[in-house]
Amino acid sequence: MAAPKKSRGAAGGQGRPGRSLAFILIVMVALTGGMFLADQPTPRLGIDLAGGTSITLEAKSEPGQESAINKTNMDTAVQIMERRVNGLGVSEAEVQTQGDRNIIVNIPKGTNSAQAREQVGTTAKLYFRPVLTVAQGTPTPTPSASSSGKPTPSGSPSAPTADKGKSSATPNASATTADNGKASSTPNASATTQGRAVTGALKTDTTPTPKASTTPKADATPSASAAKLQKQFAELDCSSKASRAEAARGAKPTDTVVACSSEGDAKYVLGPSEVSGTEVDNAKAGFDQQRGMWIVNMEFTKKGSKQFQTITKKLSAQQSPQNQFAIALDGEVVSAPQVNTTLSGSAEISGSFTQQSAEDLANVLSYGALPLSFKEQSVTTVTAALGGEQLQAGLIAGAIGLALVVIYLVAYYRGLAFIALLSLLVSGILTYTLMSLLGPAIGFALNLPAVCGAIVAIGITADSFIVYFERVRDEIREGRTLRPAVERAWPRARRTILVSDFVSFLAAAVLFVVTVGKVQGFAFTLGLTTLLDVVVVFLFTKPLMTLMARTKFFASGHPWSGLDPKRLGAKPPLRRSRRVNAPTEPKEA
């Protein structure tokens, strides 16, 4: 009777294992070629193996706001720092809290650590403030007094302006400045002249109530806060980095403040914030072909767009310099463009940017402002010597473990060890090439825990081979020949292998989600190698076993094949025997 079609179809599928082997060979060649084309012949190394920079940042609270240093704000700061560093393309950077006030940032060797240091500690508190007055960034000389004790002004009473920053913007255009808000002022302006400018600006910016307008004292002499601001503005030296930092410290959005330009060549009196940086929806750096300069384009949220429209409408009706708005980042004026028309929707920061500085500014604006201020407590260069020693010890341990596995396979499975070793080799090639390619692709970097995960994977992969080999041996013990035994054992072994690998992958996934830092490297590598184990067993080990079952060495049950029926205690072959009837003698009559 003819064999059923189903059996013939199954046999036909099993008769072409070369397709699977050819496919996995093509995959290995493609991954290896991609590794060299990407100029990444080795995996990226983490800070513990390659060395790098470790930065310790200490949280600082503003006076009267000590309660701001809490777990919520510290965790938020860690997340923002991680996004900023990742935005720079830094791989394997670690950002984590230490204690209640410190954050540790580890940056691997081979990245721009100086740039990353600047990014992680920058508070990035952005405000759009109206400019009340502007002057040169140096302190005002003390004026000479006459015999009557009255100061003699030696400069023009008019406030200096930044004429180059004028913009001819249409209603949908962005406010720009060509000189980064640089101000030109009269060099010999006296303190009295500047004091009048500051006081006058404060009066202009203030909207008095009816009761306040009837108070003659407010018109006759400046208030105590105005006098303090006048003195602070006159004495401010923006050429000193320490002075610029001091001027920016403790400034509240609702206060009228003094500030320096980011380059220190101008100083400003700025009104309360009209738009906060939290209303910036997106920021991107770009190159303006017409002006030949790098700029940062910002898109506002719906609320921010309305606020920006309101302030630009108000400023466009003012005279210079009070028609300028300052873009203040962490207390320093990045740009102070003039506004000649009402703007909405977006803004543009321009000036003496390089490509790097424009991209850095866009990065910090896009990923948000830190909820706390941080002081750089220490910067330590980490050498790879210790990590190299540990890596060497780990590799030696892995080699010893692999050698023991090989000895066990050869001693117990004999010829089947050849299939297992080839499968381990394929798994190793796939793991290595993928780790190398994942470095530039997703920023994966190999650290010590990841190496441990790869070593553990040797046992997981070998376990899958053992499960299959034992199922084949069980079928031979039942009296079947090798080729049927290989095919009948596969469904049962496949189910066991999938369940085992699923449990391992699930454990790796949970470990990756609930942990941080280097432990994630272990979990990622364990999960990756577990998936590769499934691929290797299905596309290489099983087809290779099918091919080997057709060879005389394995099919005949050679004593060194590992499938000798006698050694396995096999039962007699399961064959149908014909019943032979004994010849009957003719009956005698």
How do the strands and helices of this protein lay out in sequence?
Layout: H1 5-14, H2 18-37, H3 47-50, E1 52-60, H4 71-87, E2 94-98, E3 102-108, H5 113-121, E4 126-136, H6 191-205, H7 210-213, H8 216-220, H9 224-235, H10 241-248, E5 257-261, E6 266-270, E7 275-276, E8 280-288, E9 293-300, H11 302-315, E10 325-329, E11 332-335, E12 346-350, H12 355-367, E13 373-382, H13 385-413, H14 416-442, H15 448-477, H16 482-514, H17 518-548, H18 552-555, H19 565-568
Parallel strand pairs: 5-11
Antiparallel strand pairs: 1-3, 1-13, 2-3, 4-6, 4-7, 4-10, 5-6, 8-9, 9-12, 10-11
Question: Any overview of this molecule?
Answer:
- 49% of the residues lie in helices and 14% in strands.
- By secondary structure, it is an alpha+beta fold.
- The strands form three sheets. A five-stranded mixed beta barrel has the order 4-6-5-11-10, surrounded by four helices. The protein has a four-stranded antiparallel beta sheet with strand order 2-3-1-13.
- The protein is elongated.
- Mean pLDDT is 75; it is low at 1-13, 142-200 and 202-220.
